[in-house]
DNA sequence: CTGAAAGCGCTTACAG
DNA sequence: CTGAAAGCGCTTACAG
């Protein structure tokens, strides 16, 4: 007189691992192991399980997997902005590496605000992500602690730090800015301005490199520094160009902290008929799309963001799979691209 | 002689709903209901539960919730490309609406390939997303079926369709192109070219609007259509500009299907010293960043993509919460922005 | 309005 | 190498 078990579930009509196991005539956990390949299973059983899975169009339920294993197939990626092509390219590279490896990317936009970063971290860490990718190395202590306490493998993007247990892939922003400034000096410029927006940590590291190179040449002048906290854009670049030319008419070169600003500066020069580079040389940073098409084409620093994204994803993959990482602080360098504007 | 239950779990050290319930001295499911506010719970109990949750820094486990409810807090968003500012802005608007509402965004990039879209759909649907946002209305039958069968609420972006059970927020690409072409005709242009890259469905709808307007004016000439399947870019715009000027020297206006192409065209004109709009008028589409700064500034169609993203997210929120949607096919229109180039 | 129990679909020790 | 059982942390009928 056994009652048939009452069906109270909210079955979804999708086939489950139990269905696969039944069809393949093995236990669920043999099916689980066969499909994941984590432990040795008899070859014939593996074949039977795989055939059954295929026949039933079995797709594992990520939520169940995450709950049982305390680890999801998500990788959370935190970037400052979506409106800056640099970060989007980084994201694109990361996605192309992680998606085929079976991970889903959760993208969080911090808008350069520490509190937003903390909130996002709290929310994403609740998902028990398999890995974490964050931009830069400067963040609030709270955020730093959350990352460390979570135990989730984490790789830092765009900058490098040599610190035990910290993984990073990037370049030296300061060295790149130093090289670019040196190029201007070699061209004979002496009144070289640094024009920056946004003022995030990397922009300030570039300023350091700029200052250092100028001090070495004995021609640093803080009046030639324009540090504007507004978000960067071509429009801002144009405005700052005009303004500086008015205020410091003896300026002979402008180092814009990012290519979008520099492109705006170049267009403003064209509009105002200021000859570049004769009257004033112009350089940018990052080598964003369009810079090579400007009139004249923009001299800039090419940052290897595609490689940074790809390599950081690879490093994270190693970390998530418990494999050793040869170079925890990977410096991918930069390239000085000399074109017509300086 | 009851044995203490053996602890076999993989406890994570985080507090669970059971911990909260214990501290608040209620049952777990009262705690669950109090926290979610789904059903009436005594006010005092609610307060006690909330206090306990706060004290324990309780964060619900999304995986457990998803497994139990057969619905996650994910919203999957499928866009063609990450390298087109248009889609990134759409994404940004969507994120800003969805994140505060407690949803996480899963972003899938299809690269305009139907197979990639199907794969992404398969993988994302396995996560039982709470909602789905897809770009455009053209897709493979298989993809269409997957969406329908999943039962997941879905909103289509950028175009509108009046079809029962289908939700969309966008604009009429064809009407916008028609208006822009009419503007060129009114300016006196007669040899108007349509220059396109990528050739996705929306680009072809614009072509329709262009052809229609020219046929009405009796001056359609298919030799003035340049349809290049390569991805759009400023560089491509410059190349196509030069090429067309050489092959069809009597052209008096160029309608580029996107602002990035048009910007490239404008820069090429500047470089080749072709007067715009005197020798040839130039217009673009979408009003991307930088178009207002060109020399001359670009005449274009402003598409309300920020509003499209926001409204589509709102509509999806309604759908996910089982609320009625007043306008399932929401046309947000466009704006003709007349600047110096035409 | 509240609670005890069952169940979601997996993985993980444990035993053999 | 394989299986039976317990458990992950929630939500959902069901009963009161």
UniProtKB/TrEMBL annotation, chains A, B:
The keyword Nucleus does not apply. Residues 15-69 form the HTH lacI-type domain. It comes from Rivibacter subsaxonicus. SMART domains: HTH_LACI. Keywords: DNA-binding, Transcription, Transcription regulation. PROSITE patterns: HTH_LACI_2. SUPFAM superfamilies: lambda repressor-like DNA-binding domains (SSF47413), Periplasmic binding protein-like I (SSF53822). InterPro entries: HTH_LacI, LacI/GalR-like_sensor, Lambda_DNA-bd_dom_sf, Peripla_BP_I. It comes from the Bacteria. GO terms for molecular function: DNA-binding transcription factor activity; transcription cis-regulatory region binding. This is LacI family transcriptional regulator.
């Amino acid at each position: 007189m056994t009652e048939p078990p009452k069906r109270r579930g909210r079955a979804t009509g999708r086939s489950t691992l139990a269905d696969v196991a039944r069809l393949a005539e093995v236990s669920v956990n043999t099916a689980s192991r066969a499909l994941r390949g984590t432990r040795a299973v008899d070859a014939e059983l593996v074949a039977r399980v795989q055939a059954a899975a295929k026949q039933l169009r079995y797709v594992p339920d990520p939520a169940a997997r995450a709950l049982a294993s305390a680890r999801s197939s998500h990788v959370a990626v935190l970037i400052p902005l979506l409106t800056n092509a640099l970060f989007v390219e980084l994201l694109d590279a990361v996605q192309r590496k992680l998606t085929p490896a079976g991970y889903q990317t959760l993208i969080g936009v911090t808008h350069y605000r520490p509190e937003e970063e903390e909130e996002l971290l709290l929310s994403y860490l609740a998902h028990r992500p398999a890995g974490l990718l964050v931009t830069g190395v400067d963040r609030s202590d709270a955020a730093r602690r959350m990352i460390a306490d979570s135990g989730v493998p984490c790789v830092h993007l765009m900058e490098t730090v040599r610190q035990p247990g910290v993984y990073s892939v990037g370049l030296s922003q300061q060295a790149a800015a130093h090289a670019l400034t040196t190029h201007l000096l070699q061209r004979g410029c002496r009144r070289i301005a640094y024009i920056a927006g946004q003022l995030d940590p990397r922009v300030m590291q570039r300023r350091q490199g700029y200052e250092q190179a100028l001090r070495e040449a004995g021609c640093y002048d803080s009046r030639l520094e324009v540090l504007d906290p507004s978000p960067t854009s071509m429009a801002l670049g144009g405005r700052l160009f005009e303004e500086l030319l008015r205020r410091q008419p003896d300026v002979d070169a402008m180092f814009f902290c990012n290519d979008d600003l520099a492109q705006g500066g170049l267009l403003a020069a064209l509009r105002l008929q200021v000859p570049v580079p004769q009257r004033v040389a112009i350089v940018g940073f990052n080598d964003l799309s369009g810079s090579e098409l400007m009139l004249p084409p923009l001299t800039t620093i090419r940052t290897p963001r595609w490689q940074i994204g790809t390599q950081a994803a690879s490093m994270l993959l190693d970390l998530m799979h418990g494999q050793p990482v040869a170079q925890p602080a990977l410096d991918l360098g930069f390239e000085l691209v000399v074109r017509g504007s300086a």
